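Quick one before lunch.
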Amino acid sequence: MKLFDVYPLFNIEIAKGIGCRTYDKQGIEYLDLYGGHAVISIGHSHPYYVQKLTHQLENLVFYSNSVLNNLQLELAEKLGKASGYEDYSLFLTNSGAEANENALKLASFHNGRSKVIAFNKSFHGRTSAAVRVTNNPKIVAPINEGFDVEFYELGDIKSVRKSLQNNDVCAVIIEGIQGVGGIRVPESNFLQALSAECKSVGTVLILDEVQSGYGRSGKFFAHQYAGIRPDLISVAKGMGNGFPVGGVLISPIFEASYGLLGTTFGGSHLACTAAIAVLDILKAEHLMENAKKIGDYLLEELKKFPQIKEIRGLGLMIGMEFEQPIAEIRKKLLYEKKVFTGASGSNIIRLLPPLCMSKNDADLFLDRLKDVLKTEIIA
Ligand code: PMP
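Model of the 4'-deoxy-4'-aminopyridoxal-5'-phosphate complex:
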């Protein structure tokens, strides 16, 4: 059987990872400024994480959600404390898309509506609120089975307000920082107005923090810069540091009942162990503070590159927009300078490194980028 060919691949086989570095089969070291789509939060193969997972693996990987699982309780308690949402409840899933699907379901159960507002260039996984952020003409979007999704410009509160006033919008879903769409940070006053408008018409506000959450922005959730408290918050990616786990943080206005939501694998023993280890390390090693410190440093230094048209982001979620396509720059960074980066569309390089990135790592990257951009100009 061959693989269903949906991913363009770099011809490198990563065999090992430590902290902010990865190593290919030949043992060549790479600086990892991508963390496998923002997934690596505490760093590759952290010894505490490895030890906890190994121990759990030797005992129990999984049982079903029909028996008491104290690891789920421990995770919920630690996540509540770390995020400042102790009064919310946690529903565990396996991915970001599943977290968003469940958030949308909960919202529609809550107010009986089916219209959803999302934003241009947003990405919420392969879900009911998916939007096309690719140039592939074969992809028809939006994909919105069951939900009727309206899209507005990020920041256009006037149009959103107008639509909300029909009193038929189930939910507004918005990323803490748009990731796939190009690292766009919503203005705090826009988020505050959105939150107030939603409250006034019974619309559920869903903050998708799948990419921008878990300390990456320098706060636990990016929306906390605006001081708002959404009704539902979806998480995944950095939550398990590579182990697939996601969840929805649910405000006390939602009432649980048996059978309302459900999943086979969500909240397995191994997944919870991974997620607990991540929270323990985030706290013990002050990685959120580190993300802010190194992120601020990178943002400041990157502004000095005249070749970069615009730098956007918060903490270790950074977008570098160029006038020209960035494919060649990324290739040179990877194959010549051994640096992994991400992309958004054709002109934006996306940096999503592990939150343990050091100043030394940042300087190494800046030096290598300098070299590549110089050769770019000469070429
Ligand atoms: N929401 C956002 C903001 C994302 O960036 C992604 C993944 N890129 C998802 C949801 C979907 O997550 P998953 O791939 O785990 O389903």
